[in-house]
Amino acid sequence: xxxxxxxxxxxxxxxxxxCAVKIGTPPQTLPxxxxxxxxxxxxxxxxxxxxxxxxxxxxxxxxxxxxxxxxTGATWALTYGDGSSSSGDVYTDxxxxxxxxxxxxxxxxxxxxxxxxxxxxxxxxLLGLAFGTANQVKPAVKTFFDNIRPALPLxxxxxxxxxxxxxxxxxxxxxxxxxxxxxxxxxxxxxxxLWEFGISGFSIGTAIKNSTVIDAVADxxxxxxxxxxxxxxxxxxxxxxxxxxxxxxxxxxxxxxxPPDFNFYIGTAKQVVPxxxxxxxxxxxxxxxxxxxxxxxxxxxLFGDIALxxxxxxxxxxxxxxxWANK
Length: 327
Ligand SMILES: Cc1cc(CN)n(C)n1
What we know:
The chain is mostly beta strands. The chain has helices at 115-118, 144-148, 229-236, 305-308, and strands at residues 3-9, 16-23, 28-35, 41-43, 69-79, 85-97, 100-113, 125-128, 137-138, 156-162, 165-171, 184-187, 196-199, 201-204, 214-218, 225-227, 243-245, 250-254, 262-266, 269-273, 279-282, 287-290, 292-294, 301-303, 311-316, 321-326. Strands 2-3-8-4-7-6 form a six-stranded mixed barrel.
């Protein structure tokens, strides 16, 4: 069964989830951040300035791989929603995830990385799982999922991230033991080549449902749950002692309080993000960084890891559609 373990890095607050990916011959294993919010597979490599490569970080060295081939003239450059960036050139090489192997997968080698990546001692790159039309290589290359898709029994992958514990990405099948209740599907509109879907409403704690359609993107590469400011304000209004910290540019709350659940609705199905999942880390002895924050000027809400770790999610490219279940 083609599954790969997703281990939380900085597991106190689950900043990101990393999966072991084997690249080259003989295989070089790198921990990559699987990101449904982007479509490039890029890695720290022997071409990355050593000043940007933290001690002990696994890198890809194409010179040590008998199956590596430079893609002459191909280049890439990425800037993510949080302002981080990277760029470089491109090789093809053997890439294996779980039991799945792609012989000539485009592997984007970083010749430049921004300070956020240089300062991240855990990850060795990203593996994009958004739609291939978002790939930033010139000329464009295929994502791992697009390459492996014809070999899968079903054109899907599932995401089962967990709070402070390893979860899993499964390719081509649904493990029905990974969730409770029913899976509820809703269409995906890949307007921006992203896994963009509509939720039919939300509720805070035990309050009744607010029926309002919200445009959202499921993004495993984003740590938080980013929502419209009006909803964020209504949420923190339920937490005595919470406030907006201009210092952090974020809502914070007293760590000794368990926040209310945040519930979102897929059709009529209620999907729960438990309040105990909302602690994104201590910023002092008493104040904690909230897992729900404002989406600001973004044209959609971002359902990042704070929401995803409470759910079992099916990313189904056949329609496309996305399926949600509590667990
Ligand atoms: C590195 C990275 C990935 C993502 C989500 N797609 N962000 C916001 N930053």
